[in-house]
Structure to design on (199 residues):
């Protein structure tokens, strides 16, 4: 086995027992005053106020915003977690993380981001965000994470994705009827929080 993968698997195995976690996915490229970053920060704070802790990829943009919102909320336990990745151009760990691990393998880092979570909120992002979204959808489709809520925040951004799922994937029969319902597109932070409260 590759040494880096072996080391990352050991890091993964030693992650502490995290309860009631929500993972935020989204672009690292968005500026902190971007609308979606502001909404991620508000939502993360609300999550912590309702006894959840927030996991992100530990970088900038949406990740930073989520960690900042969680970090600034009042809680007696770990509330802001970052699972970072070592990249050739270096993704710097943001300043709002209480517990972090830096992985060298994208696959194992993604395992850490997904395996520990009870729910996922996916904000606008690029190929990496789409990869993470599709991974979670496959796990839900195969019932490895059968009842996990998946929220796509930003109806305008995600409309094209939803049309592709319904008008291409479902129409062609490469996914099953009902698979198009495995995620919820919303602009409503309270809807997300109220759903989380029921978990």
């Amino acid at each position: 086995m590759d040494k880096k993968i072996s080391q990352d698997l050991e890091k993964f195995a030693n992650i502490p027992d995290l309860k009631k976690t929500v993972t935020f996915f989204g672009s690292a490229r968005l500026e902190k005053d971007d609308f979606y970053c502001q909404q991620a920060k508000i939502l993360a704070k609300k999550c912590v106020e309702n006894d959840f802790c927030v996991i992100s990829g530990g970088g900038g943009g949406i990740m930073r915003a989520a960690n900042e919102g969680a970090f600034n909320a009042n809680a007696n336990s770990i509330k802001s977690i970052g699972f970072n990745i070592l990249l050739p151009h270096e993704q710097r760990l943001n300043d709002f993380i209480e517990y972090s691990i830096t992985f060298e393998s994208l696959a194992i880092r993604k395992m850490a981001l997904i395996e520990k979570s009870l729910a996922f909120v996916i904000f606008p992002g690029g190929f990496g965000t789409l990869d993470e979204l599709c991974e979670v959808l496959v796990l839900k489709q195969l019932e490895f994470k059968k009842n996990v809520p998946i929220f796509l925040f930003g109806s305008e951004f995600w409309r094209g994705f939803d049309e592709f799922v319904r008008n291409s994937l479902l129409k062609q029969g490469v996914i099953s009827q009902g698979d198009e319902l495995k995620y919820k597109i919303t602009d409503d932070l309270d809807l997300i929080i109220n759903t989380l409260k029921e978990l």
Q: What stands out?
A: The chain has a mean pLDDT of 95. The CA atoms of residues 152 and 158 lie 7 Å apart. Strands lie at 21-25, 53-56, 80-85, 99-103, 119-122, 150-153, 184-186. The longest strand covers residues 80-85.
